Amino acid sequence: MPGPFSVPGTNAVVTGAAGGIGRAVAARLIADGAAHVVIADRDADRARAAAGALGPRASWEAFDVTDERAVAAVVDRIWDRVGPIDLWCSNAGVGAGAGLGDDADWDLSWRVHVMAHVYAARALFPRMAGRGGHFMVTASAAGLLTNLDTAPYTVTKHGAVALAEWLAIRHADDGIGVSCLCPQGVNTAMTAGDGASASTRLGGEYLEPEDVARAVAAALRDGRFLILPHPEAADYELRRAQDRDRWLKGMRKAWARLRGA
């Protein structure tokens, strides 16, 4: 059975790591003693720059996490070039679709927030089985609660949480650890345009990516599945589960306040 994950001496891959949470997590892994961290991103120039800034124990790969063949090829390439992958942080995300969005928003959100994790697990888990490893899914507190601004984001982040739970149950006997990162508001490029009426403001002050990376490091060290950089999210989820109708009523009131702002 998997337990705490020890970072020193391991090889890690972080997707969506050219900036934001991904870059902060990669930097933290290097600071905590990882032997090698691969900065993976769709933007080759930014991935190259991020890896260069992190020093000789970082390298980069540019690929689309929604392309299953590309993901499988990258896993093969890293395994051959760097060595066995001990930790994969499936972190890439998008903020697509206001309100109900359109079909393109739903398609992109589904492919990035759900299928990208599926493709990575398909490529990695057969290799990790028996030898061990760890897989971290970056979801969102929206996947435990809701984001009132965007249905595509909320629904697919719920899917990400459900997938992480399924993987944690099914693959524990293979020696593979799984964790699920669910932050509330974080100061990244994705939230740069959030105004006072953004629903993520309901969770209080935004954290910095480095705060999230510290929470990830602590959870890996402790062997915890659910990573909550905003601990209050656990209370919100508990209230939601205990009395769904009351929670929905409260969220409707919050939405009315946001529209007034």
Helix-strand layout with pairing:
Layout: E1 11-15, H1 20-31, E2 36-41, H2 44-54, E3 58-62, H3 68-81, E4 87-90, H4 103-128, E5 133-138, H5 151-170, E6 176-181, H6 209-222, E7 226-227, H7 232-242, H8 244-260
Parallel strand pairs: 1-2, 1-4, 2-3, 4-5, 5-6, 6-7
Helix pairs in contact: 1-6, 3-4, 4-5, 7-8
Family: Belongs to the short-chain dehydrogenases/reductases (SDR) family.
Organism: Nocardiopsis endophytica
InterPro entries: NAD(P)-bd_dom_sf, Sc_DH/Rdtase_CS, SDR_fam
Main traits of this protein?
single chain; 261 residues; alpha/beta; seven-stranded parallel beta sheet; 13% strand; SDR_fam; oxidoreductase
The fraction of residues in strands falls at 5-15%
Biggest β-sheet: strands ordered side by side in the sheet = 3-2-1-4-5-6-7
Q: How many runs of DSSP E, i.e. beta strands?
A: 7
User: Helix/strand/pairing class, anyone?
Assistant: alpha/beta
Portion of residues within helices: 40-55%
Query: Mind describing the biggest β-sheet?
Result: 7 strands, parallel
- Unreliable runs, pLDDT <50, ≥5 residues? none
**Tally of DSSP helical segments:** 8
Describe this structure in words.
Helices cover 48% and strands 13% of the residues. The model has no long low-confidence stretch (mean pLDDT 93). The protein has 8 helices and 7 strands. By secondary structure, it is of the alpha/beta class. Strands 3-2-1-4-5-6-7 form a 7-stranded parallel sheet, sandwiched between helices. The protein has helices spanning 20-31, 44-54, 68-81, 103-128, 151-170, 209-222, 232-242, 244-260, and strands at residues 11-15, 36-41, 58-62, 87-90, 133-138, 176-181, 226-227. α1 crosses α6, α3 (68-81) packs parallel to α4 and α7 packs across α8. The protein is globular and about 55 Å long.
